[in-house]
Amino acid sequence: MIQKGWRARWIAWRNSWLSNPAFQRWAADFPLTRGVARRRSAALFDLVSGFVYSQTLAAALRVGLLDRLAEGAGSIDSLASAIDLSPDAAERLLGACAALGLSERAGDGQWALGAQGAALRGASGLSDMIRHQALLYSDLSRPEALLRSEGPGAALAGYWPYASGLSGGAEGPAAVAPYSRLMAATQPAVAADILDAYDIGRHKRLLDVGGGDGAFLAAAAIRAPALRLDLLDLPGVTDLARRRFGESGLLDRIEIHTGDFLTGSLPRGADLITLIRILHDHDDAGVDRLLREAREALAPGGALLIAEPMSEAPRRDRVSDVYFAFYLLAMGRGRARTPADLIARLKAAGFSHARRIRTRSPHLLRAIVAHP
């Protein structure tokens, strides 16, 4: 016989009522419960319709509707011509976008950019992220198969070859350019959040591990003009970084190291090491090894700064526990860990003190700073 605790019994009692059609009808009619019932019904339909909402957004981006609306309000006919749709199709898309807050009526038969549409255009790299979602949707066409295999999906694994154990950079800049462009596009907002949350100016030398084409270091160079810079990443990726710093006139401030941080040693001498959106891409063994390497590589009195999406389990979060849970599964490995898990791993790696620091958008990015 299965023994149930009080919480399990309460959940079973609650669910017996919520799943009862007669109770659902009563709750929807009774004045004191009507609002709650309607909100639950709408939330349930949002779960059913979520893919259609995301595809509406994708369509608006791909046909250039949001870009056109950002230039100013327009009539159905003028907008249809600009985005190469029939007037009927353009009106259908505009109406769907209006329901999502992406567009809105401006009077006199005109349509304008909506509040959510304006916010999306101001969010650095979000449009690029949305456009590449087609790869994720391809891998999630049969999500139960992805869960049962516990292996990478073909589309995202090919996009992020390093995460699935593929060469991930050995072929040269052309092979790594797609994911490097995406990371660079989304990096400005991430860098601003991190640099506002932590004063890097107190340090002398910064090593960015897995630094990609150098977008974060370029922002750090502006924020702290006296800071020496180091970047470590795979071959091919570092070629892109060298090009970026050459074009920006920063080559004299940076040392670029080529290597695999999961198998090799980290360059020594930096008093600040950053892991920006790195650990959640890798399994526990890789994370533990990298943290030990970071501890060994730090100069005396130095600090390690980790910034990435983190889970808030047991209190669940849709970004980390839904989106990133499946994204990282399709990608090949990794998971969004809790701050408590990461702090425990830091201590096991030899760090004596670790603490969370406040970030501007904790649902997308949380941060931890640790000291030996």
The name of the CATH topology of the largest domain is: Rossmann fold
Largest sheet: 7 strands, mixed
**Rg (CA only):** 24 Å
Question: Widest sheet: strand order?
Answer: 6-5-4-7-8-10-9
CATH H level of the largest domain: which superfamily? Vaccinia Virus protein VP39
CATH architecture of the largest domain: 3-Layer(aba) Sandwich
Overall pLDDT confidence: 89
Number of domains: 2
Pick out the low-confidence regions.
Answer: none
Q: How far apart are the termini?
A: 51 Å
Proportion in helices: 40-55%
The secondary-structure element order is HHHHEHHEEHHHHHHEHEHEEHEHHEE
> Which class do the helix and strand fractions yield?
alpha/beta
CATH domain class name of the largest domain: Alpha Beta
Envelope shape: globular
Sheet-strand content, in percent, reads 5-15%
The helix tally amounts to 17
The number of distinct β-strands equals: 10
